[in-house]
Amino acid sequence: MPIVLALAIAVEDCVSLDRLPSVAALRPPTCPHCDEPAKRPGSSLGIVGHGTYTRQVRGLPGATEIVIHVRRFRCLGCARTFGVLPAELLPWRWYAGSAILLALVGSLLLGRSARELCARMVFGATSAGWKSLERWRRDLLVRLWCWKAREIGFDAKRDAHERRSCARGLERLLALVSAHAHSARGELESAACRLAEHTAHTRTRSWPIARAG
């Protein structure tokens, strides 16, 4: 099930069904599977609401873990479903995109240890052998932001396991959204949203989708 990332949604608006934006507000312009338009000729709908589900989010300021509601849609053209996430969140990742960027900036660009990062950031992790951080380094431009790798010249086979190459890749990734190498949380929250907006994802690939309007 692809997850469509939509910048228009704030994470805090997904913590309760009462605040969750409406089906109409979140309906994408086309289906990420088959490109069926949201509205067919004659004003009939091609994409309809299909309920909601919940997922956990870690690494947001002031909370070790929260649960959000995700709105699901169904395409009447191909009969497949997909969900819509806030752009700050990455599909199949517990941690918010800004939290992952903050940890990678600290590790790869500022030289901070996993233990120091755990102490600075409310992630619920305490040991020096922080497995999530190691996985994020390895997956930086292979899975996490893979749709940007080609744009910045990152070769997964050549660069993914070399620390300096990953550091250069992270700097180039942040430069795409003018975040540079700063570690301010607010700046990286904006960077995570700008990197992910208007993209669709499956477990094996990612691609840009049409913008609303």
Strand arrangement in the largest pleated sheet = 2-3-4-1-5-6
The main sheet comes to:
6 strands, mixed
Total number of domains: 2
Helices and strands: which structural class? Answer: alpha+beta
Total strands = 6
How far do the termini sit from each other? Answer: 24 Å
Average of per-residue pLDDT values: 86
Low-confidence stretches: none
**What proportion of the residues is helical, as a percent range?**
25-40%
Question: How large is the share of residues in beta strands?
Answer: 15-25%
How is this structure best described in words?
The chain has 213 residues and is of the alpha+beta class. It folds into two domains: 3-87, no CATH class; 97-194, no CATH class. The chain is built from eight helices and six strands. It has helices at residues 23-26, 97-109, 114-120, 131-144, 149-152, 156-159, 163-175, 185-196; strands at residues 3-6, 47-58, 65-75, 81-86, 199-201, 206-208. α2 packs across α4. The longest helix is centred in the middle third of the chain and has 14 residues, at 131-144. It is globular, with a radius of gyration of 18 Å. The relative contact order is 0.17.
